[in-house]
Every structure is written in C-alpha cells, then in structure tokens.
Amino acid sequence: MKPTALITGASGGIGYEFAHLFAKAGYNLIIVARSEDKLIQLQEELDGHPVTVIPQDLSEPGAAEVLYNKVKELDLTVEVLVNNAGFGLNGQFDELPLLDQQKMLQVNVNALTELTHYFLQDIKAAPLYDIPKGVLNVASTAAFQPGPKMAVYYASKAYVLSFSEALVEELRGTGITISTLCPGATDTNFFKTAQAEHTKLVNSTMSPKQVAKAGFLGFLKGKRVVIPGAANQSMAYASKLFPRSVSAKLAHYVDR
Ligand SMILES: NC(=O)c1ccc[n+]([C@@H]2O[C@H](COP(=O)([O-])OP(=O)(O)OC[C@H]3O[C@@H](n4cnc5c(N)ncnc54)[C@H](OP(=O)(O)O)[C@@H]3O)[C@@H](O)[C@H]2O)c1
Questions:
Q1: Which end of the chain is more exposed for a tag (fewer CB within 10 A), N or C?
Q2: Does domain 4-254 have CATH number 3.40.30.10?
Q3: Which ligand 1 atom sits nearest the alpha carbon of residue 185?
Q4: 129 carries an active-site annotation
Q5: Annotated catalytic residue within 68, 153, 154, 253
Q6: Which keywords belong to this entry (predicted)?
C-alpha cells in the first residue's frame, strides 16, 4: 500500500508543483481546490498515477468537515496533509470588505486548523512507511512580522507558523512530521488575487517549482520550518533582530 497525500490549492501555483513532487515520490494523491477543470487537467497530466479530484470551496464555514467526510466516503486514508490553499488581500484594513477578509481567515486559518484536526487522527493511526507521514502547512515570510496593507493576511500566516510549531512539540516522538513552509514572494497568481501586483514584493520572486521543492524536501527531512531562498532566510532572521515596530515599517514600505 502506498501512502496518500491530500493537497489543498493544487489547481495552480505552489500546490500544483507539490502535486507533481508528491506523485513522483510515490504518494497517491487527493487534490483539492475550487477549479475542478484545473484539477482534472492536473489529474490527466499525472497520467496513470492514482489521483482523486475533490472540488471544494474552503472559504465556506464547515468545509473542512465536508471535505473530510468526502474522503471517508471514498474509503480513502490520508497519511500526508498539505495545507497549501490560501490567499492574500492588499489594502487598508478598514477599507477592504469585511466579508472578503472573513473568507481569507476561513481559508488560511480555519480550514487549515480544522483539516489538521480531522486528518491528524487518521495520520496518527496510519502505519509508518519508508516515506514520512504528517502535515505540511504553508505559511509565508509574512509570518515573521506585522504587515500593514495586508494586516489580516500577515496575521493569518503568523497563526499558521505558531500553530504548526506548537504541534511539532505536541507530536514529538510519534513519527509524525509537522513542517511549515514559509515562502517569500513567489511567481504565482497570488499577487493578482491579492491585488498586489503594483507592490515592490513582485520585484524579486522565486518560481513555484523552486519553492515547492524546498518545502517538499524539508518535509521529507522532517524540518520544522523551511524558508526557501537565501534572501528570504536573511529577512526572516533580520525580523528577529529588529523591534516589531521597525519590521512593520519595512513591510509597509515593500507593500507599496
Ligand atoms: N505566491 C507568493 O508570493 C506566496 C508567498 C508566501 C506564501 N504563499 C502561500 O502559498 C500558498 C499557495 O499560494 P500560491 O502562491 O500558489 O497562489 P495561487 O497560485 O493563487 O494558488 C492558490 C491556490 O489556493 C486555492 N484556493 C484559493 N482559495 C480557495 C478556496 N476558497 N477554496 C479552495 N481552494 C482555494 C486556489 O485554487 P482555486 O482558485 O481553484 O480554488 C489555488 O490552487 C498560499 O497559502 C499562499 O498564502 C504564497
């Protein structure tokens, strides 16, 4: 029996690259996003590899439970959960529509937390394979400082990092890997969705292939936190040295 990886946000960007990497490493796949057409296209690209497509809008309250139940109905077991789906919104907090920001929290925070809660029971019960089992959460370098003009997004990613690092300690010695990938700016649809194409963030991006590979290899090695790219690593390190008020000013500068 081969282990199964469930990847959210697999219809494009970093999640699409994760799907290719996990398939190549021998994991069966369950791929999730709203765009069913793109998921089916990915399934066809992975010709012959066992891939289950589950279209699901994770911004709906209760979506994680619905997704978990769909997986159970298909009689599938998940050994690796990749919580990758997420999005950002650029703008002044009080001027961005509250509903959009609530949806962002629903995807970036609630769905990620709830999916981890549901699937962790199965991951715990799953046998140990020669390839790891566990959870790979996608945060961001945004997790390391406050982010004016993307206040809720940065805060949501700080949550993902803090939550995941706590689980590392809770699950130490269980054979379950919990890794957090913290990408910096990456060349995906993220900036278009976030309406942040005008910001300085887009001036220096990594490719989604590079970023997913760093996260995937980090997960295989059991790394707690993976920050792809030397510049992003330096930025994350620097954020520990500066007062948070200074980090917030710097983040405000690049978000313009
Ligand atoms: N790109 C960057 O600069 C960057 C930097 C740091 C962290 N990240 C993080 O990396 C992760 C992947 O983003 P990306 O850069 O690859 O952006 P992307 O190309 O926009 O991909 C986002 C993925 O999330 C899915 N998604 C969005 N809303 C969803 C919803 N309501 N329900 C289900 N799926 C949803 C999208 O699929 P559908 O639209 O088909 O639903 C898509 O597959 C996110 O968590 C993001 O915060 C990105």
A1: N
A2: no
A3: 3
A4: no
A5: 153
A6: Oxidoreductase
